[in-house]
């Protein structure tokens, strides 16, 4: 069903448009008001997605909005049985993480804002020195800390908006633009608010994710050029026009580009470091909501749009998933850092999902798709619990915790 109400447009762009206001509220009024302001934006955006999602049924399986855009096609946003569960889950979890961020980021910034660019207090055992330990002494009276918390929530809202826009996009170029809008604020959140190795890890995150993004872009451009357009419906209709010799290269570029985001074995190297050195709310955001972007992209771009290639390569994807689940589980058993343990656990869980998506079975694909929801919720809760432990103890080392 096509709709011109603009409700999806509002749901997607509300966090982006109000992110500058969140910055100024945080800078002027402090953490309490900006926290509830950001939570309110994400809660309203979630409701704006739920309202049209309720109308989806067997008679009207799609709720879509389309706007004339450029020579690349139309700018569209679509809710269906697949995108709705991803988009609503992402916004809902982001709203919860925004609330958790208040206490955690207050203490994190209060221990670091005087020397944000030179914070090297992490010890080799994963614990923190007295200067780094979480404290909110004089936080409410510090203009610099207010500025930092305002910037944090502005980037946070932009991050959430990029994720949901990627899921609702109906055009390959639009998909990639939202994909980049998701990665850029994530980079700054890690670089500005992470722990001791944040500069190195943020660059690692930027390098790995953007190498994957460039490969993905090359695959998307080839799809659109051969199919005669970049809209999803155009590609789905004309997928048979893609030459078979090019199909292999396109599938390779798309799958590898997406697999970097998911963190499949060999392409997972950035994940343990990023999860460990990011501020815990951002670790939760990456491990929970953002992990769904890769799963969704495989479903929408590879299985749905490039369906002719699915049976040719699915066995390799399944084997890759098996290796990933075993490797992630084995590595998790060896960790002492609680955040790295959860990182490898997340990698293992994604292996199960990938295995299901490559099963060539309706039950397998459905199971792999639905498994992302408990994965996202579970990983978010686990990382928030880890953050609570770090706040109270000042250490990530499980051996030190006893």
Which helices and strands occur, and which strands form pairs?
Layout: H1 7-29, H2 31-54, E1 63-70, E2 73-79, H3 83-110, H4 143-168, H5 172-193, H6 198-227, H7 232-238, H8 244-262, H9 270-277, H10 280-305, H11 310-332, H12 338-357, H13 362-393, H14 398-401
Antiparallel strand pairs: 1-2
Helix pairs in contact: 1-2, 1-4, 2-3, 2-4, 3-4, 3-10, 3-13, 4-5, 4-10, 5-6, 6-7, 6-8, 6-9, 8-10, 9-10, 9-12, 10-12, 10-13, 11-12, 12-13
Would you write up a description of this structure?
This protein is mainly α. It has 14 helices and two strands. The chain has helices at residues 7-29, 31-54, 83-110, 143-168, 172-193, 198-227, 232-238, 244-262, 270-277, 280-305, 310-332, 338-357, 362-393, 398-401, and strands spanning 63-70, 73-79. A two-stranded antiparallel ribbon has the order 1-2. β1 (63-70) and β2 form a beta hairpin. α1 packs antiparallel against α4 (143-168) and α3 (83-110) packs antiparallel against α10. The longest helix has 32 residues, at 362-393. The chain is globular and about 60 Å long. The N and C termini lie far apart (57 Å).
Could you report the average pLDDT, rounded to the nearest whole number? 86
Question: Regions with pLDDT < 50 over 5+ consecutive residues?
Answer: 112-141
Strand-pairing-aware structural class: mainly alpha
Instruction: State the strand order across the main sheet.
Output: 1-2
Number of alpha- plus pi-helical segments: 14
Determine Rg (CA atoms, Å): 21 Å
Number of strands: 2
Distance between the termini: 57 Å
Q: Per DSSP, what share of the residues sits in E-state strands of 2 or more residues? A: under 5%
> What's the SSE pattern?
HHEEHHHHHHHHHHHH
Largest sheet properties: 2 strands, antiparallel
Q: Helix share of residues?
A: over 70%
**Outline type:** globular
């Amino acid at each position: 069903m096509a709709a011109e109400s603009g409700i999806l447009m509002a749901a997607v762009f509300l966090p982006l448009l109000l992110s500058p206001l969140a910055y100024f509220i945080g800078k002027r009024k402090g953490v309490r008001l900006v926290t509830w302001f950001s939570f309110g934006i994400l809660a309203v955006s979630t409701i704006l997605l739920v309202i049209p999602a309720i109308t989806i049924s067997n008679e009207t399986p799609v709720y879509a909005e389309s706007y004339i855009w450029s020579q690349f096609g139309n700018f569209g946003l679509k809710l269906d049985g697949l995108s709705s569960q991803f988009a609503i889950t992402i916004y809902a979890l982001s709203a919860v993480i925004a609330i958790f961020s208040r206490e955690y980021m207050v203490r994190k910034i209060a221990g670091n804002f005087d020397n944000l660019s030179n914070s090297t207090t992490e010890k080799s055992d994963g614990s923190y020195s007295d200067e780094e330990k979480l404290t909110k002494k004089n936080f409410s009276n510090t203009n610099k800390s207010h500025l930092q918390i305002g910037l944090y929530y502005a980037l946070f809202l932009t991050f959430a908006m990029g994720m949901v826009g990627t899921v609702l996009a109906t055009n390959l170029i639009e998909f990639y633009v939202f994909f980049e809008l998701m990665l850029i604020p994530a980079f700054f959140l890690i670089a500005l608010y992470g722990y001791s190795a944040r500069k190195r890890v943020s660059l690692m995150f930027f390098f790995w994710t953007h190498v994957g993004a460039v490969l993905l872009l090359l695959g998307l451009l080839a799809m659109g050029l051969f199919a005669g357009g970049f809209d999803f419906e155009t590609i789905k209709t004309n997928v048979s026009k893609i030459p078979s010799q090019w199909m292999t290269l396109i599938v390779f570029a798309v799958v590898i580009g997406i697999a970097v985001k998911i963190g499949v074995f060999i392409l997972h190297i950035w994940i343990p470091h990023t999860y460990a050195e990011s501020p815990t709310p951002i670790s939760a955001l990456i491990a929970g909501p953002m992990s769904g972007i890769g799963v969704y992209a495989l479903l929408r771009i590879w299985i749905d749009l490039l369906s002719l290639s699915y049976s040719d390569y699915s066995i390799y994807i399944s084997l890759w998933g098996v290796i990933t689940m075993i490797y992630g589980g084995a590595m998790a058993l060896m960790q002492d850092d609680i955040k790295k343990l959860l990182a490898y656990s997340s990698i293992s869980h994604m292996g199960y999902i990938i295995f299901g998506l490559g099963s060539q079975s309706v039950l397998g694909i459905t199971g792999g798709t639905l498994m992302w929801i408990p994965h996202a919720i579970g990983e978010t809760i686990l990382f928030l619990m880890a953050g609570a432990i770090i706040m109270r103890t000042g250490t990530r080392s499980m051996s030190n915790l006893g």
